[in-house]
Amino acid sequence: MPKPARRVIGKPAALTFNNLHGKGIILSNNNRQATRTSGFGDAIVFSSRTIRTYEKVFLKHRQKQVDWIGSLRVGFCMHEPQTQFTQDTLPSLAFKHLTDKAGYWLRACSDELLRTSPIIYVYYSFDGQIYVGGYGQTTPAQAVLTINEHSGPYYLFCEVYGKTDQIEIVDESTLPDQSLVNEGVSLSIHGNVMDSVNAKLANNTNLSHLQYFNYLFPSNPPHTATFLSTTKHNVVFDTKHRIAYVNNLRMKSSYTFLDSSMKVGDVLICKVMDCDANISSILLFGLTTQNPSTLQNQSLPEETNTLVDLYSSSRWFIDHDIEANISLYDELAFWFESDGHIYLSIDNRPPITLKVPIIPSNMLNMTFYPFFDLYGQITSLYLYNFSTLSKLNFGRQSTARTLCVICCENLADTQLLPCQCILCSQCASVIKRPSLLSDCPFDRKHITQIQPLL
Length: 454
Description:
Blueprint: E1 25-28, E2 33-36, E3 44-51, E4 57-63, E5 73-77, H1 81-84, E6 104-108, H2 111-116, E7 119-124, E8 129-134, E9 142-146, E10 154-159, E11 164-170, H3 193-203, E12 235-237, E13 243-246, E14 255-257, E15 266-275, E16 284-288, H4 304-310, E17 316-319, E18 331-336, E19 342-346, E20 352-353, E21 369-373, E22 378-388, E23 414-417, E24 422-423, H5 425-431, E25 449-452
Antiparallel strand pairs: 1-2, 2-11, 3-10, 4-7, 4-11, 5-6, 5-10, 7-8, 8-9, 12-13, 13-22, 14-21, 15-18, 15-22, 16-17, 16-21, 18-19, 19-20, 23-24, 23-25
GO molecular function, one term: ubiquitin protein ligase activity
Protein name: RING-type domain-containing protein
Keywords: Metal-binding, Zinc, Zinc-finger
């Protein structure tokens, strides 16, 4: 079975509004502008294609000077609009009529945001959070709603409501100052993976430390497991061969093999250090009896089934795309048991069973080498060590720091006072500035100071 061809090359197709829309909407400017003609109902619009994770949709909006209450509503839906409705069957209003149905998520924009930002942007993150922000504003985008279905990508879903009578999709390349997007908080999509990871590690040494599986090792465990040195698999390594980085994001295959074998009861521990947000597939993990030293400096094919055919004298057991929600800085534990099943625990949670088991016959007489293909969202892995299955304790209470829910890039290591909400130091410094009377983005309480977590 070949792995999904999901590596994104270049930009997605141009974004416009869907031809399926409310009766009160007129589309113009090559279907990029949606105008409500009268009243306040029949103004639902959708995007012409699905929106990828972290892909920002920029919307220029117009508000009328009227006494109406309410304004533009933005969100996402999981259904292809034209398969669900006709213009006659599309509900007049989105709230209740659509949002009470499975697969539709919508939230009204704040009056303050629309008043101060003629262009807003909306996107969703790995963990299903929908964010809305004002273009050019230094205030971080706010998480306004949670998608409870993690099977995207999703269609943009808006209602041109209340004071807002027109919205227009704006191409990001036409915006005047790209540096203001993301409020100065970088979300790496395409670029140099090695430089991105190394910069993050230089700014925060805690990122290299295990949090969920640290109980498996002493304070300074020896790194007995390393990645095998190679030059032809679209992967580069740090000097100690502990961190693997995708070299060219435009190529699908990024194979990386370990130079150590593993046996029943061994647990391989690694950590996600970088993600390519535009990819919907996750990661390939496999075990092979092929000694990876024989593959050094070989030009390997992009498709895994072709690789298996080339070395068919060996045994290969591969999960081509792990069906799990894996995010930045997640810690992964892989192992297999005597019944042949291969398991994965994410952040010390109860394990999931991977799709392809090892055939148990003669398993104890075989030598298995683990390998990855970083062709999906995961573009960098930090390799730690082997532990043993007997040491795993899934009931152990975690003290790990979570990812900052605002930027989804840094660990939440800073506390706002007096409300005690947690986020990363970078986002905290943006929110709490001496020149501002700052309020907490989570509970709207006034912030008096920020302090690092111990």
